Amino acid sequence: MLAMLRGEATFGTNGGTTWRPWKYEERIAVAKQVDKFKQSLSTKQLNEKQFRTKVIDFISKKNSRQEFVPLIGKLIEKAHVEPLHVKNNAWQFLFKGLLKEAIAKSNLSGACKKFNDVPKDSPFSQVVTALKYEVKAKCLARKVIKWYDETQGNGQDLQYRFTGKETRLFCHNFMRLVKWLSSDKDSKHQRQTVLIYAYVELKLRDCVHF
Question: According to the lineage, what is the superkingdom (predicted)?
Answer without folding.
Answer: Eukaryota
